[in-house]
Amino acid sequence: MTPSSKGHFVYIVECSDKTLYTGYTVDVEKRLTEHNAGRGAKYTRGRTPVTLRYVEAGDSRSWGLKREIEIKRLSHEQKRALFQKGR
């Protein structure tokens, strides 16, 4: 599920307390490792381990930052719907 090539990605991780965190990165594997090592976002530091639930690829940093904001504005249920429809 983790993209191996570098690019522009928006992702959602589920924290150990079942909360969701949305972020932007150019390297999903590296970012996931950072979150789980406690070096990621301040929000996820006390909520490890985190599990990757959703990844969306785009063509630019601008796209990624805009899409991250769009997803962050969604409700918890709408975010879950993004990654549950793929099951």
Shape: globular
Distance between the termini: 12 Å
Approximately how much helix is present in the residues? 25-40%
Poorly predicted ranges (pLDDT <50, ≥5 residues)?
none
Strand order of the largest sheet: 2-1-3
CATH topology: GIY-YIG endonuclease
> How large is the share of residues in beta strands?
15-25%
Rg for CA atoms: 12 Å
Topology as a string of helices (H) and strands (E): EEHHEHH
Tally of separate domains: 1
List the total number of helices. Answer: 4
What is the number of beta strands?
3
The CATH class turns out to be Alpha Beta
The CATH level-2 architecture is identified as 3-Layer(aba) Sandwich
Largest sheet: 3 strands, antiparallel
**Sheet/helix structural class:** alpha+beta
CATH superfamily heading: GIY-YIG endonuclease
Can you tag this structure with a few keywords?
87 residues; alpha+beta; GIY-YIG endonuclease; three-stranded antiparallel sheet; 3 strands; globular
Write the layout of secondary structure elements.
Blueprint: E1 8-14, E2 20-25, H1 28-36, H2 42-45, E3 51-58, H3 61-72, H4 76-84
Antiparallel strand pairs: 1-2, 1-3
Keywords: Endonuclease, Hydrolase, Nuclease
Organism: Novibacillus thermophilus
InterPro entries: GIY-YIG_endonuc (IPR000305), GIY-YIG_endonuc_sf (IPR035901), UPF0213_domain (IPR050190)
